[in-house]
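Q: Got a minute? One more chain.
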Amino acid sequence: MKIVVCVKHVPDASGERGFGDDLTLDRDVDGLLSELDEYAVEQALRVAESADVDAEVVALTIGPDDAAAAIKRSLQMGATSGIHVVDDALHGTDAIGTSTVLAAAVRKAGADLVVCGMSSTDGAMGVVPAMLAERLGWPAATYAGRLDVADGHATVVREDDTARLTVEVDLPAVVSVTDQSGEARYPSMKGILAAKKKPVLEWGLDDLGLGSDDVGLDAAWTGVVGAEPRPAKGAGRVVTDADGSGSAAVLEFLAAGRYV
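A: Always. Here it is, folded:
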């Protein structure tokens, strides 16, 4: 069995983030593997390590050269190999275009199961797994809190505040997992050293049978219409309580801001 895990290199949330002149996300900043995709890698590795499945795990990403860091982290965690789709024409591609590229790459890779995080930490749309399944013509089982694979089926358990839903789909299939699916492992020193020897393929649009008209900013169905920096945080209000009026001032502040 071949499990493809879709991973994304995103700007570090603890650093400065912003938009470029064309209102696309500025990716020329420090980045890392999306935290929510770490759970997808973890679940794929657990499936591969289970007694019922003999599988390899392939980390797949789309993006510029720096996006290779997402594959590197996945390999350090234990993935078998990586695929990096890199092409200048991909700049500005939206979720619809991303699903097109991922579907072509999954077909070329010959996957039996695709595992995704429930969302990316930069776009936070959560729509790509369903779009990918639709393009592949495969069943989708999304927002899984637990994933099991056996006998040509994937079984997921989805929980919310009121119910627990168990869904079984035939393989091949697309599954997205939540941050409740199981804590992602930290790479060991052995895993970090082993990752250096694992193969990573680089594919362009030509390798996937796609053209520049299929992707990029001009082909995007969605886009950012405006962006402006968040205003600087203002100074707080200091209330002295020498005459015992402090509590009244606090209540006035809370009422004015409709905090109560």
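A: Residues 2-214 form a domain with the Rossmann fold fold (CATH 3.40.50.620).
Q: Perfect, thanks.
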